[in-house]
């Protein structure tokens, strides 16, 4: 079975291509606030694509700047499907490196927290290279050295099913980390790479957080106390990650509400619960989507139904995914999404200092702890 890797992962493709830029996009002035998307993408979901490598079209770059985005953790390499995980991951890194060289005035590769600050000062977008599955490691710890030398800074241990490192959120056994998974966490700590526990099963998450000598993250999730679905994290997981100095990113995904039709109010509710549970210094955002939005929602419904069917057939779908559940929040789309969220949080009485932390400064602090300042 062959899959479109970008749409298979994010559900963010539409059959129709866009011929021109939107009529009105904000002027690209250097943003005042640091905004870091702990898991997202730079791409145009209206354009067909079979890779997770960023798409740096004029529209994508203009809208990313207009959104105020400073840096984003972009998923590269193998997530699921029939490709060789190691080869697919090396290929994506090489292709993204070539893009960064070709668009040096627009983007930069993030290796340390200082690179995020540099992107902000320069008015560029920082690209954080990340994985959403540990399958490309095989059973070889030295591959961690290869990938960190190539600039990968975020290693999510599992996707929804189990792999050789541990059980994902949809693995029925909830068996936790494997012996090799424990070795991987230790080596990632040695190499100062970020251990991301998004998509992990509860035992995998708790065991990895306790085992890790460095703070860990859950870069894109929701709160199970609000919506009891496997892709969301329990208060025990959220609290442990925060207590050990880590970061929890709240996503813009359908799992935020049991109806499957998440809206901005649900994002705010999950952020407020995360802050209550973790403290305001340990919460961020990881939208799990792009800034540029789908333009033809009518055509997209057929595309989404095919994607959900493919994910179910491949065994990587999560509970709560249905053909009518959009993999984004309808009223937090496009280049105004972060501005809108900030306004909603202001209306809830959040201080500007707390909003700044959640939209980017908490990730920046956490990254400095793990990668170095």
Automatic annotation (TrEMBL):
Q: Print the keywords alphabetically.
A: Signal
- Xref: Pfam families: Peptidase_M19
List the InterPro entries. Answer: Metal_Hydrolase, Pept_M19, TAT_signal
| Top-level taxon of origin | Bacteria
Signal sequence region:
1-27
Q: What is this protein called?
A: Peptidase M19
Natural source organism? Pseudoxanthomonas daejeonensis
Cite the source lineage: Bacteria, Pseudomonadati, Pseudomonadota, Gammaproteobacteria, Lysobacterales
